[in-house]
Amino acid sequence: MEKELKINNTASFKEKLWIGIPVVLLVGLLFTLIYNHHAEFSWDGFVAGFNQEFLVFFAIGVFAQLVDGTLGMGYGATSTSFLLAYGVPPVVSSTAVHVSEMFTTGASAVSHHRFGNINKKLVKHLLIPGVLGSITGAYLLSDVINGDVIKPFIAVYMIILAVIIIRKALKKNIVKKKTKKLGALAVFGGFMDSVGGGGWGPIVTSTLLGRGRNPRYTIGSVNAAEFAISFASGITFMLFGGIHGWQVIIGLILGGVFSAPLAAYLVNKIKRKPMMVAVGVLIILLSLKTLSKLL
User: Fold this and answer.
1) Rounded to an integer, what distance in angstroms lies between the CA atom of residue 117 and that of residue 32?
2) Which PANTHER family does the entry mention (predicted)?
3) Domain of 269, in residue numbers
């Protein structure tokens, strides 16, 4: 009886960790940001920041998180495409997306855990390789690569991601296959996510779904792992590039946190294929708009 009680207590403690760790990290991050950057804000500046532009960034955050939480992909690709098309520079957009994702993916991970959408074994396989890839990509973009030079390449990369999303949506009769080299997949997904401002979901989720994995647990697990990937890349951006574009970041955070629980609830309620095609087409149009400004 005592042994059974001990096992139950251990299991209960581990369950609490899945919620406790994201919450503690996010609270710690929030206090760190306030402590380090409070001098940059004034009440007048704070109030002035809530203008039409803020509402645009908030709306982008709401839409991007709804896409990501329900499809398991597309937050970075959707928000980056919108921000680039709106005229936000690549380094600012990528930093904003990843700093905001530290909060939105945390909310998403907690929501997916609450709705029972997580395969913990899959999360553990993706976690460390994905973090290593994201740190490498964030460092290169912050300290080595010129954002203005790679802006057209990011737009092209977003079009490729959109094509992958549409292709996966239109694919029929998916045969379940064993997924090999999960670590390599996670490293590549984390790296491209940091450099391009998106790609973790389209690369990792679409590959796993293409292998016939259960959509509900794949989406929930990839979203849960994405919290660690976003946290690692966001911290790297802060250390090497600083933080710019507070209005963008706060708008994306509030919009994403607002819609995360709804997205987790809707993951099994919506028709995935039409939405994936619609999101893919939208990303292509936004990326073409960005390219047209550069050419």
Assistant:
1) 31
2) MEMBRANE TRANSPORTER PROTEIN MJ0441-RELATED, MEMBRANE TRANSPORTER PROTEIN YTNM-RELATED
3) 52-293
